[in-house]
């Protein structure tokens, strides 16, 4: 059973990355563009909601396509940790009390992606493959 599950690990991580990235992008789009049931758009200059919306939208997009995944995920994780501790935590100690479950979960999810990487189907993998091909060609010609 473990062998079967291990074989699908990179694909499962990729699906996980894409789904979470799309959901994160939706939060950013909601805030930036006033869509998806939003009460209105926020300015990117409004602290902290503007920069958070930009991180959510752009970071989510990068995570979806798998470009700079580890860095984007680390920044997104930090943004969500900030959101939890600054926005939610003063309203109560536990996430269930302060309505910060989503910020807490996103923070941990993105930290996990920063460590695991993008899985398969990522632009990061295409770039790494091309770099390896170029290095092999340079090494063969030397």
UniProtKB/TrEMBL annotation:
TM ranges: 12-33, 54-85, 105-123
One protein family per Pfam: DoxX
Subcellular location: Cell membrane
InterPro entries found in the cross-reference section: DoxX, DoxX-like_oxidoreductase
Keywords, ordered alphabetically: Cell membrane, Membrane, Transmembrane, Transmembrane helix
UniProt topology in membrane: Multi-pass membrane protein
Statement: the UniProt record of this protein carries the keyword Nucleotide-binding: no
Family to which this protein belongs: Belongs to the DoxX family.
Protein name per the record: DoxX family protein
Organism of derivation: Saccharothrix lopnurensis
Lineage of the species this protein comes from: Bacteria, Bacillati, Actinomycetota, Actinomycetes, Pseudonocardiales
């Amino acid at each position: 059973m473990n062998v079967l599950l291990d074989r699908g690990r990179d694909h499962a991580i990729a699906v996980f990355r894409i789904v979470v990235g799309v959901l994160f992008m939706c939060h950013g789009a909601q805030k930036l563009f006033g869509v998806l049931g939003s009460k209105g758009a926020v300015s990117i200059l409004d602290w902290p909601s503007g920069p958070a919306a930009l991180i959510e939208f752009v970071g989510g997009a990068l995570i979806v396509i798998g470009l700079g995944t580890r860095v984007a995920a680390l920044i997104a994780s930090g943004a969500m940790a900030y959101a939890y501790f600054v926005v939610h935590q003063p309203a109560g100690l536990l996430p269930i009390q302060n309505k910060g479950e989503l910020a807490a979960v996103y923070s941990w999810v993105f930290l996990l992606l920063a460590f695991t990487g993008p899985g398969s189907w990522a632009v990061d993998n295409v770039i790494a493959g091309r770099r390896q091909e170029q290095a092999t060609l340079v090494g063969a010609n030397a």
